[in-house]
Every structure is written in structure tokens, then in C-alpha cells.
Design brief:
Length: 205
């Protein structure tokens, strides 16, 4: 056996790659109106973007349930242990749900729940490094140290192509959104201390 790696779908690792690397992904919930979808299972990114473009309602998300985590932890229980690495606790309740589940699972092997303080691909990169370390035979303590170092050094930058969805989601006022669209402003965001914040504003013509 090797250390088992578990994460959530905020890591943005494709399922086929996750399966190849022996990573278990617990899906977050995406809500469109009254419908609940499991991220990466009931709905994939291309479908999500089509729905968000055509839907009158704006989607919301919620963390996996404690029960989802308990099921995965019990399925992955082994003497070498489990490392469960999750999206920043400052943007989601996922880490707290995983922590509660670990306290309730009564596992025979050790488990370490880590708050990555990262989102998206920087979280995913740390998860893939964890999987590589586990596959190389590193123990739980060693894998945890590699993950923590990776998370501490990582920073993600992103360019928001349109401010329309910031307005729909209530992150930006309609007036500011209109001005942003007219001036073709594209915000650059960055992860900082576990939060996603604005880094700069650029204009594209």
C-alpha cells in the first residue's frame, strides 16, 4: 500500500489524469436554480460554461458533505495513511467538512487534512506532487511536508476575460460592470494568503 491522496474538484485536475495518478476527487456541488450537479460527474466545464451563458439564474456552489468525505475516507483507509488536501478554507467550507469527517470516520490508519490555501491549478499542482511522492514510496509525513512546501511557494494569477459574470454574481455593481465593459477592462486576479484578490486592471482593444 501507499499513502492515499484525496482532494476536491476545485483542484481542476481532469478525472482521467486523476485516475492515472491514483488521486480520489470528491466533487463539490454546483447549483443551477433548483438543480444540483456534482462537479466533474454530472456536469463538466464545457457544459457549465454553456449553461452559465444561457441561464437566467446564476450558479452557486457548496462544499461536499461530511458524509461524502466519510465514505471516501473509509474506502481509502489503509496502514500507510491518507493525505486529504483541499481548496483554501478562506473561499470554501470544504476543508472544514473534511476535518469533521476525519473526526467521525474512526479510521484504522492515520489521516492528515491539509488546507492548501490555494485554488484551482495551484491546488491541483500540489495534489499531483503529493501523488508523485506517494507513488515513489514516501511516507505520510514526507508527503505532507512536500505538499506544504509546494502550497507555501505557489501563487496563481488569472485574467478575467469579461466582467459580465462578476456583475451577475454580485461581485461588481451594474454601473461598474457597464464601465468595465465599455472600456474593455480585464481584471487580473491573484491568490494571496488563501484569498483570491485583484492584482491589477488591464485594458484590451
Amino acid at each position: 500500500m501507499t499513502v492515499k491522496i484525496i482532494t476536491d474538484s476545485c483542484c481542476d485536475i481532469p478525472l482521467d489524469l486523476a485516475n492515472e495518478l491514483n488521486i480520489t476527487i470528491v466533487p463539490v456541488h454546483i447549483h443551477f436554480g433548483t438543480k444540483d450537479y456534482l462537479d466533474g460527474i454530472d456536469i463538466i466545464p464545457n457544459e457549465f460554461f454553456k449553461m452559465i451563458a444561457s441561464s437566467e439564474s446564476f450558479p452557486t456552489t457548496s462544499q461536499p458533505s461530511v458524509g461524502q468525505f466519510i465514505e471516501e475516507f473509509k474506502n481509502s483507509d489503509n496502514p500507510d495513511g491518507i493525505l486529504s488536501l483541499h481548496v483554501s478554507s478562506k473561499v470554501s467550507g470544504t476543508f472544514n467538512a473534511a476535518k469533521q469527517a476525519s473526526d467521525q470516520s474512526n479510521l484504522s490508519g492515520p489521516i492528515n487534512i491539509i488546507d492548501s490555501l490555494q485554488v484551482s491549478i495551484t491546488q491541483g499542482f500540489a495534489v499531483m506532487r503529493a501523488a508523485a511522492a506517494a507513488a515513489a514510496g514516501k511516507n505520510l509525513h514526507e508527503v505532507s511536508n512536500i505538499v506544504q512546501e509546494t502550497c507555501n511557494r505557489a501563487t496563481m494569477f488569472g485574467l478575467i476575460d469579461t466582467v459580465d459574470y462578476l456583475v451577475k454574481g454580485g461581485r461588481l455593481s451594474k454601473t461598474a460592470g457597464l464601465i468595465g465593459s465599455l472600456l474593455n477592462i480585464k481584471p487580473i486576479i491573484v491568490t494571496r494568503n488563501g484569498e483570491v484578490v485583484q492584482y491589477a486592471k488591464t485594458r484590451s482593444f
